[in-house]
Write a structure and sequence with these properties.
Blueprint: E1 3-12, H1 16-24, H2 29-33, E2 38-45, E3 53-59, E4 65-73, E5 79-84, E6 90-97, E7 103-112, H3 116-145
Antiparallel strand pairs: 1-7, 2-3, 3-4, 4-5, 5-6, 6-7
Helix pairs in contact: 1-3
Length: about 150
């Protein structure tokens, strides 16, 4: 099984602390950022960064729905890591300053892909599809925090 990775980034016109706080706010802001690919969003424990347990279903394609139960950790300043209890999927959000009143947000998801021909298609198409989904999340985040 090969590891599959999808990474998207964006510069947002808001300071890194504001952007990080919005991403870590699972009970408020985070749910508002999610496009139609996400459903059944529910915070089950915590709700603010480290120690949060959040559930959602991610419909990446018309046929593929992932039931995700994510444990959130903050291993370093400016970083949120969401580990799915139901699969090998791990999503890392990294927020760093990018000049006066701006920040860079990088979201990267990795998982163990399928083998064989299905795995080939997954490695070829899944990163692009997930990239588009996260691009929408980052656009929504920018709209939420940019004054």
């Amino acid at each position: 099984m090969a590891q599959v990775e999808a990474t998207t980034e964006r510069i947002i016109a808001a300071d890194a602390e504001t952007v990080f706080d919005a991403l870590a706010d699972y009970t408020g802001t985070r749910g508002k950022l999610l496009p139609e690919h996400f459903s059944e969003y529910e915070v089950r424990e915590g709700g603010d960064g480290e120690g949060t347990l959040v559930h959602w279903k991610l419909q990446a394609t018309s046929k593929r729905v992932r039931d995700c139960l994510l444990e959130v950790s903050e291993p370093t300043d400016g970083q949120l890591v969401e580990k799915d209890r139901n699969s090998s999927m791990v999503t890392t959000w990294t927020v760093t300053p990018a000049g006066e009143g701006k920040s860079r947000v990088v979201v990267s998801t990795v998982w163990n892909g399928a083998g064989g021909i299905g795995g080939f298609f997954e490695r070829t198409f899944a990163p692009k599809g997930l990239g588009r989904i996260y691009d929408t999340v980052l656009s929504n985040l920018a709209s939420e925090v940019e004054g």
